[in-house]
Specification:
Layout lengths: L2 H85 L7 H7 L46 H8 L7 E5 L5 H4 L7 H4 L5 E5 L2 H21 L5 H15 L9
Antiparallel strand pairs: 1-2
Helix pairs in contact: 1-6
Length: 249
């Protein structure tokens, strides 16, 4: 197989991986939402979140992790295809120099620039550990996109691949409290997004401590308002925000 054929094959694989991640996320999120709604109708708030809410939240988190891994695999495959394409382009560039230009690192990616969009940030868009980016109460902004990962990583390109994107006020809050007036624009706004480092911090904070805390909140506050949700998100920021990236405390 020629290098050109290999490049085309890698491109096709990348497109397939990306399509699979979108399809899987859509189907799984739809199933989880339907299951959640059915449990709410059958069991009510208390039993639902005491027994099954945490499991559904963990399943949703693992689904997001799998989809993120598929997207990263697609991106890596696409870069490999581009590398093969450059090797076959006949532009006189050596394999070694072409190889050095392949990694799509945040510091050299177009649009990342040499300055951060946040005060005190470095050239990768990642705030220094000693300088929290926000110490105020949790707030909503307004986003024109529901692709919250893109919204977050466009603002913090240096954190891509390092963190899972968490909603300070969770996405499911809009379903649990339909009268609270939450909108997709608010839920997916940059102001409502937090970066939680992958690995142990994600496992202990994101998928355990935050999950249990929100489950208790839902159980104890069946008629919460939008401000109640923001106030609780602020408490979570106060408690765990020093472990987020960028830090918020």
């Amino acid at each position: 197989m020629s290098i050109e054929d290999e490049a085309h094959k890698l491109d096709a694989i990348a497109e397939r991986l990306e399509a699979l991640s979108r399809q899987f996320a859509s189907q799984m999120n739809a199933w989880l939402s339907e299951t959640d709604a059915a449990l709410l109708e059958i069991l009510g708030y208390g039993l639902r979140y005491a027994g099954f809410g945490g499991l559904l939240g963990a399943a949703r988190g693992r689904t997001e992790e799998l989809c993120e891994a598929l997207r990263e695999s697609a991106a890596a495959t696409s870069r490999a295809a581009a590398y093969h394409g450059r090797r076959n382009s006949g532009n006189g560039e050596s394999s070694a120099s072409a190889g050095r230009s392949v990694p799509d690192t945040p510091s050299s990616a177009p649009g990342s620039g040499s300055t951060s969009s946040e005060p005190g940030g470095n050239q990768n868009g990642d705030a220094p550990e000693a300088a929290p980016t926000n110490t105020g109460p949790a707030t909503f902004g307004s986003s024109t996109s529901t692709n919250y990962r893109k919204t977050f990583f466009d603002e913090h390109p240096g954190l891509k691949g390092q963190v899972w994107v968490h909603h300070a006020v969770e996405r499911q809050s809009a379903d649990i409290y339909p009268n609270a007036g939450l909108t997709d624009a608010e839920i997916h706004s940059l102001q409502n997004l937090r970066g939680i480092p992958k690995g142990e911090t994600n496992n202990t904070v994101h998928l355990s401590k935050l999950r249990k805390a929100w489950n208790r909140f839902y159980d104890e506050n069946p008629n919460a308002t939008k401000q109640d949700l923001l106030d609780f998100a602020t408490k979570m920021d106060d408690k765990y925000g020093d472990q987020f990236k960028p830090r918020v405390r």
